Amino acid sequence: MLTGSVTAHELTKADVDTWLDGYLPYALRTDDIPGAVVTVVKDGKILTARGFGYADVAKRTPVDPERTLFRIGSVSKLFTWTAAMQLVEQGKLDLDVDVNTYLDFKIPPRDGKPVTLRQMMTHTAGFEEAAKGIVTYDPKLLLPLDQYLKRWTPRRIFAPGTTPAYSNWATTLTAYIVQRVSGEEFDSYLERHIFAPLAMKNATFRQPLPRALAGNMATGYLSGAAKGFEYITPAPAGSGSVSGTDMARFMLAHLQHGELDGQRILSAPTADMMHDSPLAKIDPMSLLLPLNRMELGFFETNINGREVIGHLGDVQAFHTSLHMFMKEGVGFFVSFNSPGKAGAVQSLRTGMFQDFADRYFPNVAPADGRVDAKTSDEHVRMMTGSWIASRRADSSFLSALYWMTGQTQIYAGPKGELVVPSVLGGGGRPRQWVEIAPFLWRDKYGHDRLAGKVVDGKVVRWSYDFASPFEMFDRVPAAYQSSWLLPALYASLAILLLTFLQWPVAAVARWTYKAPHPLIGKALHASRATRLMAGLTVALLVAWAVTVVSAMGSPDALAGGFDGMFWFLQIAGVLLFVGLPVIAAWNLWVTWRDGRKWTRKLWAVLILLASLLILYFVVAFNLIAMTVNF
């Protein structure tokens, strides 16, 4: 944490406007972001509402904080959670009963335990990631809430109440519960019970936009190119389109314990429970860490010893940040209509919030402690290894991406310091972590903390402030570690490719020198079958890689456009990935029985081992799971 004597600036409209004028225009130009909206609220009023840059570059339409709609992404969840808490307040929902009580389909138990609304609001229900159809540009691929939820229930990969694992699916399930229990279509419910009481006239979750609001929508940009309207299939988790001043009114209502201008959307006790809800009813064996945590829907973004709650939101083009300083009665909201150059918006929105806090609410927390060098070196050693995030897919082919490309490495630096290469600071700088308490580190030149959880003398889990409310990192089992599995996979593919390529090369050589084939009968058949299967297996894995990479770059493909291809790859995989080890074993048996040279026998063994390794890989990471749900 940055320390020293810092004098707070008085938070006035004049000062914050001056700060924004010196901050955002340069940042937008440097980071290639067309436009942004910022609102700041204080003491029950909108302190400032500013638009910067363009809502539409081609038309040179400036951002209007009163009228221009920005897609707020997952900040939309706050409206969904607020709606749910209204029904909790009315006694129509209970935070701690089985949600199947409110559904017309069943969520299977995990370890004999059901899902509860409290777990869904704190992202501890244990669901794996559900990625299919999150964003699409084709309205034909959009599904109603019930169809989206009933087509597939994500596997619960963690015991309930033990592990934060962010879930858009669970948020959408909550909205469906609101819809069923209230008897109102969810979009209509928001309009009647949140937007109307708060006079939010430029806010909607509807897709496509209502005609009266469509002309106010900011254009989203990717790599400088204008993109169409993004349809969010789990709409209650991310479909909000809201103006800056309407978001200010929503912040004001929550900062004032559920009331604005005489209109109340929540009682004060209910609002306070959302904002500061100790997880007393979460499993006491939970491995949560002493970092920022989830409240009921909001998550902590505490800074400088201040109690701050908020949320972030991202769709393809729009990126949003909302933070409320609860005791100070101040709210800060910013949204951008492009990720900018090389995703620069991520550092920009984090930096803006932190700089705002440092300027107006400097540090009041007690000074950090310090762990002695010898003990710290030992703690760093205990943290080293390979780790995997809790927010991941485990039951579909996407698990290969999460497990093979998403593992986080921790190691000790040359001076014994903690090094986490994937957790970078602003501008991509490596962070310097200083241990301030046992297994608790702070970024020397920033605000984030990182903590490890020790069980029976071993570090079993860690996270850091930015991620800890909704994501933890657990040790990767040896059988899944990419450090050995990827090299083994590449070596296996090389063996199979060489096996296949030797076939035409040898054929050309025999033809050139008029030489007979050295094998006959079963030996010849086994050799040819092995080489053919080897080549087809390599081709199929390449097809998998190309298809997945293409799908990751196309929201419509992930929304169902590639389902036919995914089915083909899995069906072909059953034939090839299972068939190759059988053929390779036959080839090895024939080779051994014929008494060929030891080099031929060794190569036959390597082919069999390569085929078994690939079979292990495709089974472990669900490349033949026979499903297009992911």
Structure description:
The chain is 40% helix and 16% strand. It is an alpha+beta fold. An eight-stranded antiparallel beta sheet has the order 19-18-17-24-23-22-21-20. The chain has a seven-stranded antiparallel beta sheet with strand order 3-2-1-16-15-14-13, with helices on both faces. A three-stranded antiparallel beta sheet has the order 4-10-6. A hairpin with a 2-residue loop joins β22 (449-455) and β23. α2 (77-89) crosses α5 (168-182), α13 crosses α14 and α14 packs antiparallel against α16. The two termini are 40 Å apart. The model is unreliable at 280-285 (pLDDT under 50).
Distinctive features:
single chain; 630 residues; alpha+beta; 8-stranded antiparallel beta sheet; 7-stranded antiparallel beta sheet; 17 helices; 24 strands; globular
Give the helix/strand layout.
Blueprint: H1 13-31, E1 35-42, E2 45-56, E3 61-62, E4 70-71, H2 77-89, H3 117-121, E5 135-136, H4 145-150, H5 168-182, H6 186-195, E6 203-204, H7 211-214, E7 220-222, E8 225-227, E9 231-232, E10 241-242, H8 244-255, E11 259-260, E12 263-264, H9 268-275, E13 299-300, E14 308-314, E15 319-325, E16 330-336, H10 345-360, H11 373-383, E17 385-389, H12 398-405, E18 408-412, E19 418-419, E20 433-437, E21 440-443, E22 449-455, E23 458-464, E24 473-475, H13 482-513, H14 521-552, H15 555-561, H16 563-593, H17 598-620
Antiparallel strand pairs: 1-2, 1-16, 2-3, 4-10, 5-9, 6-10, 7-8, 11-12, 13-14, 14-15, 15-16, 17-18, 17-24, 18-19, 20-21, 21-22, 22-23, 23-24
